[in-house]
Design goal:
258 residues, mainly beta, Jelly Rolls, nine-stranded antiparallel sheet, five-stranded antiparallel sheet, 2 helices, 16 strands, 33% strand, globular
Length: 258
Amino acid sequence: MPKLFFYTIALLFACHSPSLVADDHIGVGAKPVKGAEVILDGSRKMLDEKWTYWKGPRFGSELPIKWKVVDDPVDSGTVVMSNDPAAAGGKFGAADIVTKKEYRDFRLHVEFCIAKKRGNSGVYLQNRYEIQVLDGDKTTHGMAAVINEKAAPYEIYNGTGKWNSYDIQFRAARFKDGKRTEKAMVTLYFNGKKVHENVSITRVWGGKNSGLDGDNDKQGNGIQDTPGGLKLQDEGHDVRYRNIWIKETDFAEANTDF
């Protein structure tokens, strides 16, 4: 067949597929961008120095953090594993961990490995807005979803027992005279492929046991003009985390695209 035919097919595929970026700072194993702070390197020392428990209404554990430091199931080194006994049975909010430092706008990299089918966790931006970590779910409540707002193509997921990555640029909600004038916004690369671009986040989901402002007006719309930590959710499952780094920034304009 003519070369033009194959070129046209390739172009059409590219236009309708999540965009892939060749970048040392995006994807599994990504190196921190200049000015970023590593906040989880798989060591006990960093876990205790930079993280604590989120003491929400359902909090049921106690310091020191009961998440375990274990061998990396794929590569060398150690990683941090969820599955605190207090969260047994999927009791989210009982043993979630959150950074001691709070953030507004930022660039974030997170790597996670789900050990078994249906493994469940979550990455919470500002301890409010969840990017879902859930094996086996393709919906707006599933893997790489901006929770209940927008789902990601599930086929990009590397599967259980393998490392996956989120690269995120996040812009906090804006306020004037105490009222929200602009919603929070996020762009997300999943395993090196762009799956969300400038998605506005309508509300906080999950109620008071999920994160900050989750129950301010019973519908998650009572978002406050305050920073929040990065939170990792424990739902009583074996989910491993490593290579988490973050860079504070300031998105003056409502654009979080890379």
